[in-house]
Amino acid sequence: MLTLSQVTKRYPTGDRALTDIDLTLPAGQVMALIGPSGAGKSTLIRCVNRLVEPTSGSIRLGDTELTRLSGRELRRARRAMGMIFQEYALVDRLTVMENVLSGRLGQVGFWRSFLRRYPADAVTEAFRLLERVGLPHAIDKRADALSGGQRQRVGIARALLQDPQLLLVDEPTASLDPKTSRQIMRLIRELCAERELGAIINIHDVALARQFADRIAGLRAGEIVFDGRPEALDAETLTTIYGEENWGEEEWDTQGQAADEASSSSVEPATRLSLATGGAS
Ligand SMILES: Nc1ncnc2c1ncn2[C@@H]1O[C@H](COP(=O)(O)OP(=O)(O)OP(=O)(O)O)[C@@H](O)[C@H]1O
């Protein structure tokens, strides 16, 4: 279980990115974090794994107070948090298998990491995970020979090879087409259920969040302004999170019109388009 209490982040520039965030994520729960650009979503995720230092407050993962850790203890705690990225963060010239195994880099000794020699159990588990994420035939392919969806599957397998207690997921579908996006969200959801893994998924696509998350938290200007079940996310709540907009679907009489609108908007096109298309069916 992850617990954030009164977490505040103020950047040296003076930007107050998070203010007094209180949040508890039980094991096995998939929480989507939505909100407009600049609301603080990435900052929140990065405070949890301490890529960003919170200015004040407490962040506990199980019995461990993460904000007090440094050095080796912090590295150990980070291993308990698998990270999945929008741009996959794979090493292009390495194979799929090598990329997945790199999830264990922090756990094997220096020479093994240096020589990329992994223990047999890590290799067996990597095979198993690649099978589970649907890539058993791509093991020897170079990462740069894969499609975006396949790359994200590798990223997911790599995160799981760490055997984490928690997944931190930053815009996992932002570079993917709508069908692949749904497949990836479904996969993350299934894996969280199978492994009793909690996940925080930073996502702009409200329809995807609605369909695949157990819970949605809405951030606005660094504060949580909505925290509840996906069904409770109505037009009024969307206005609270994103600001005034006609969220009713009657505005969108054709998908084409919706797509035109979305492509001409500079902010959160995925959010607008997903709402327009009524989300996933
Ligand atoms: N390294 C930084 N230095 C100074 N200010 C920052 C830094 N990173 C983020 N901020 C500021 O903190 C606030 C929150 O930014 P953050 O990136 O967490 O928002 P976000 O909700 O993830 O946005 P997006 O959806 O566009 O990724 C913004 O005002 C941003 O300008």
Strand order of the main beta sheet, please?
6-7-8-3-9-10
The CATH H-level superfamily is: P-loop containing nucleotide triphosphate hydrolases
- Tally of structural domains: 1
Which CATH top level class fits?
Alpha Beta
Characterise this structure.
It is a single chain. Strand 1 (2-10) and strand 2 form a beta hairpin. This protein is globular. The protein has one domain: P-loop containing nucleotide triphosphate hydrolases (Rossmann fold, 3-Layer(aba) Sandwich), CATH 3.40.50. The two termini are 31 Å apart. Helix 5 (120-132) crosses helix 6 and helix 6 (148-161) runs parallel beside helix 7 (178-195). It is an alpha/beta fold and 281 residues long. The strands form 2 sheets. Strands 6-7-8-3-9-10 form a 6-stranded mixed sheet, sandwiched between helices. Strands 2-1-4-5 form a 4-stranded antiparallel sheet, covered by helices on one side. It has helices spanning 41-48, 71-79, 96-101, 110-115, 120-132, 148-161, 178-195, 206-212, 235-242, 255-264, 269-276, and strands at 2-10, 16-25, 30-34, 56-61, 64-65, 81-84, 166-170, 198-202, 215-220, 223-228. It is built from 11 helices and 10 strands. Bound molecules: adenosine-5'-triphosphate (ATP). Residues 11, 13, 15, 17, 35, 37-43 line the site of adenosine-5'-triphosphate (ATP).
